[in-house]
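Weekly structure sync, notes
Attendees: PL, DS, HV (note-taker this week)

Item 1: DUF1302 family protein
DS walked through the input record. Source organism listed as Massilia orientalis. Sequence as pasted into the shared doc:
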Amino acid sequence: MKQRKTTFTRRSRLCRALIPTAVMVVASPLVLADDNGGEDRFHFDGYLREEVSVNAKNWQDTPNYNDQGKVSMARTTVRVNMDFKVSDAVTVVAKGRAAREIDTPFLKHLQGMGANSYRGKNLTDLYNDVDLREWYADVKASDRVKFRIGKQQIVWGETDFFVANDLAQGYDNVWRSFLEPANEELRKGNIILKTNIDVPEANGGIEAFIRPGWDRKRDIGTEIDVYGGRWSSQPYAGVDFRKIDPYAWHNTKADIDRKTGGVRWSGMAGDTNYSVSWMRTFYNAPIMNPSPTTPVFLLGIPGVRASSGVTPTGATTTAGSAGDIIYPIVNVFGATASRYVDMADAVFSTEVAFIKNAPFNVVAATSSPMSQFIAPGFDGWKTKNVVAAMVRMDKNFAFTQNLLGTEKPMFFSVQLFDKWIQKFDQNDNLLYSVGWGGRAKRHSTLVTTIFDLSYDNGRIHPQLVLGSDVTNGGGFYIPSVTTQLSKNLRWKVEYDGFWDNGYAKTVNGGVSASDRTTLFGYLHHRDQVYTSLTYQF
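Item 1 (cont.): predicted structure, written out as tokens:
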């Protein structure tokens, strides 16, 4: 993508690069205010982790190649967390992570098919990373007011797997998809000024943040595998879509330099924890903004014209011949609540988010050549107000101590998540995602459950996680066992399995306009066996 080459931009980049140093310099004079009486002011921890995943099934979209039993990931990760208490009022924090992967035969095969070929790089370049994921200073201005300044993560929400209010930042779903249980490993940090103001008179407090727009491109939006890698979706293994529709970062509807932010009130009402919030943020799913012209490779087809018949939104042209990928900015109004209910001996939680003008790619009555011959969804996008809601129950069941011999009651959690499109009209032909023809429905409901057991004084943890798309069919199941081998060493083995209600097949190199594939059809035959060995220090 063509970048702006102005003096302002170069200076801006220099300023952004110096921000971590500036935060430390501003904080350092405060060390003179209090030497903490010689107490230990420096804390250091982290982990060393080895992860391996193996394909459990043969993919349908890698012809003449047997994927089953092939190693899809062999990853070494070092995570380091450091914090330094400059004074009673100031603490400086840095969190870094370095990851390196082995170029397995399976990854080489995907690369040979075209994965991550947009800039001619190796597929492992997509996964190898050295990154200062968070760096910030915590400043206590008074007993009531605290600031956090720098690159950080904002967590607003109560849901597992599928988010409603937790939209302040995007996620990196490229190397591990949504299966990583530790959200902080996938969530992207942003440069933010955040303040917390305690209001004890009202049994609550205010949390507000502003993101000034100084972030790297890679730190914006929820990133999915459009690169043809190991978490690419059926039938797009080995397809790097950036060759025809790269990212665009300065669309007027999705400009990463624009300020975003939010404010939340959290409090207690009797025995109920609650919060209400508003935020202006980037939508958590990428949207295809189509090109007004037809790509050259389609012009030889009879009846195909140079004009695609569609108009991009927020720009007159697009970064790629077929369009570009953007993250439109939306407003989210949210509320959460949770409390223990004595009658059920369980904790109940709920979350509601009103997403104003949520974007959806569409299929037009008269489709563009890209939608007709390559994949549905290159006909533009529309916005609809959406209500995302969640209810969850967390409960311990003691019967497992006698029935299954657990050392303590089994932890059980069930969650229902629903997206409700307002003023729904099926003639709008809204899609769940560009690339597949599954039409969005008025209500899209998913249910997830967690069964967590404990043996041998907590050293052995079997777990079963289930999820089902009630509206469209399909789901996932993840049985796992985590064993604490020693004080610092943990070993986990799990199976990531999926089932679907139909999946997309290519016809003459494209996905038919009659396709109706939805969420779990994207993961057809993507089952894997996963194991990790983690040494914590």
